[in-house]
């Protein structure tokens, strides 16, 4: 299972595609097609030690928007962060607020386009 993202190749300026792959860990699925991992336990590294956590299901509540930038050389860049997994650590809390500690994994998607004068000439 994965999402297909159109990117612009930084060297050629041509469209390219990136597929985000997710491991399917069970057979139940959420309404948006991601695997239902509710209750799955996972051990993660936290502050130099192994800590148990629980994998949580999640749903984007807004479109995963692109951040877009114009660089001073005339190039444009866009990027976004796509959340892949969230783990709530068991028996770990923020000492200042009492909130549980969460670990996450995400994929950074980046694309850029540049003016013709910055592109490498094709042979």
Descriptive account of the structure:
The protein has 123 residues and is an all-beta fold. 0% of the residues lie in helices and 52% in strands. The chain has no helices and seven strands. It has strands at residues 2-8, 15-21, 41-46, 49-56, 67-70, 76-93, 100-113. Strands 3, 4, 5, 6 and 7 form a five-stranded antiparallel beta sheet that branches. β1 (2-8) and β2 (15-21) form a beta hairpin. The protein starts with a strand and ends in a 10-residue tail after the last strand. The model is unreliable at 1-6 and 16-30 (pLDDT under 50).
Bulk shape: elongated
**Which spans have pLDDT < 50 for at least 5 consecutive residues?**
1-6, 16-30
- Total helices: the number is 0
**Helical amount among residues, as a percent range?**
under 10%
**Largest sheet, strands/sense/barrel:** 5 strands, antiparallel
The overall pLDDT average reads 79
Helix-strand pattern: EEEEEEE
Distance between the termini: 38 Å
Radius of gyration: 19 Å
Q: DSSP strand (E) fraction?
A: over 45%
- Number of DSSP-assigned strands: 7
Please give the structural blueprint.
Layout: E1 2-8, E2 15-21, E3 41-46, E4 49-56, E5 67-70, E6 76-93, E7 100-113
Antiparallel strand pairs: 1-2, 3-4, 4-6, 5-6, 6-7
Give me some keywords for this one.
five-stranded antiparallel sheet, disordered N terminus, 123 residues, elongated
